Amino acid sequence: MAIDTKNGSNGTAVHASLDFTTFRNIINGKLVSTTQTRHTPNPSTLEPNPEVPIATPQDVDDAVASARAAAKGWAATPLAERQKAVTDFAAALRDNADAFAQMLVREQGKPLAVAQDELNRAAQWLEVQARLPFPEEIVEDSAERVVKTRYVPVGVAVGIVPWNYPVMLACGKIAPALITGNALIVKPSPFTPYCNLKLVELAQAFFPSGVIQALSGDDNLGPWLTANEGVDKVSFTGSTATGKLVMQSCAKTLKRVTLELGGNDPAIIFPDVDIADTAAKTAQFAFLNSGQICVAIKRIYVHSSIYREFLEAFVAVTKSLQVGDGLSEGVFVGPVQNKMQYDRVRGFLDNIQATKATIAYGGATTDHGDAPAVQGLGKGYFVQPTVVDNPPDTSRIVVEEPFGPVVPLLKWDTEEEVIARANNSDAGLGASIWTKDLQCAERVAAQLQAGSVWVNSHLDLRPDATFAGHKKSGIGAEWGVEGLRSYCNPQTITLPKA
Ligand code: NAD
What we know:
Its EC number is 1.2.1.3. This protein is an alpha/beta fold.
């Protein structure tokens, strides 16, 4: 599906249309090829996706130099103009949402409806952040003086994006970086480079050259960017293990760092819930995007008085979730995104079997030579949604984040006990409480160690609310006004009146 991007105010050689067959890096407003290329497989069919560039150290230096050159003029552009450019970019993204969603299914594996929802959210994350008020703060305004704190762009930022929600999470970085007057280099995951490259290609029509660039590469690229002296800030979304490496690397040049890392979200189910309704909702929040969401439900604590009934209802819903290629009608659970992650999820299933925990439903995967096949599925990285029946708290599926469609249900008896067990994790990203008693819900919410807590819902993220991980789920915050500030250095000016 071809659309017009035109040549923007930068007047550079950007493609006249987005064609989704050729993919190049975007450096200083130009589409740049590399000598070496690579591609990923479609995770449903294992058919090859198109070739993408492998950026070199020279490409990194070129992009950083262009970003440094562009950052000055962009910082001097009035806030309202920057906000308008981001809003116009969002409109173009909406105009092209169908083409992006099709590509997203082919590179990420998610069902088309989930891809369309991601595109809608991506545009929303641009639009809403572009409307957030971002005034200077007046600390004192007396007869003698004015003291005010303003927020100055850091300069050049790098956004490192994971493979689970590549478009939305990239837009979650593009919006605050550009609205606050920084230049940004987007680094997609090597597993999902396609939509991110097209996103930045599309953006060229709305921003001066060098303000937003994209580099796709192999595993060397992230470390090259985090080590580069010309980069002032890194906003990273990914695993906790990689987050530690990013922080180590950034420490050498004292870059500003925001880390959005892994989660192990508990959902606490009280005995007064509507069992069928709550089981249906929590199953969807556990298996959406094949469980590959940082804030998916990953541990479900169910009060012992309703445990059996809830488990049966949960299994019935899980059975009804259709597994398959994201482009097939009615599919809810697509493949796991890549072979590495598929093997990791298989490792959890092996561990569940080895420790003789009870699988209430599921456990099958695509046959890659040594596993039982999910009936009727193609060659891809499919894992049947799997429900584990009350495994020990010390088991791997409770302690670690599987990042796949496998979820344990666990029994609890007292409020104090379940709060302690929910908090007994290195992760502190999201959590939810399910009850009709809203006083109880608020009391429990206040005791949970998590950056986002929902009542009778989960995963209800908003671009205008601060999103931040507690404990090893992150450092700093994204989105909302806090997210805008995270791309700035505060500057307090004291001005005498006389
Ligand atoms: P990952 O850590 O493997 O990779 C994330 C990104 O970091 C990729 O772009 C990758 O190329 C890059 N990278 C890898 N090594 C690097 C290095 N040494 N230096 C710089 N960059 C490097 O994560 P993933 O597997 O893509 O994503 C899954 C994880 O991300 C899960 O743990 C999930 O919970 C987490 N996640 C967190 C959030 C959040 O907002 N908190 C959102 C989505 C995903």
